[in-house]
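Bench notes, afternoon.
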Amino acid sequence: MEWFFLFIAGLFEAAWAIGLKYTEGFTKLYPSIFTVVCMSLSFYFLSQSLKTLPIGTSYAVWTGIGIIGTTILGVLLFNEPMDFARAFCVILIFSGIIGLRIISP
């Protein structure tokens, strides 16, 4: 269950990172509320995973999922570039997450 919590925490991390873009420096009310709620949920689910998983593993996976999600959403929502080098680096991050899952309890 802790890995599920960690995955959900990573998804909420990507959501709040994207939400930050829409807040325009926290001057827009609804995007700001969305972002703060996603931040809170992300930290909550991360804290639940930390009950049993090591902090280093949890933090690396949490940020990795956030990076991958934010990168994909940046491409889809903001037309950010996705060239081979960038895609390769995202694949390396994904590989690291899988590796940590395999070697962790």
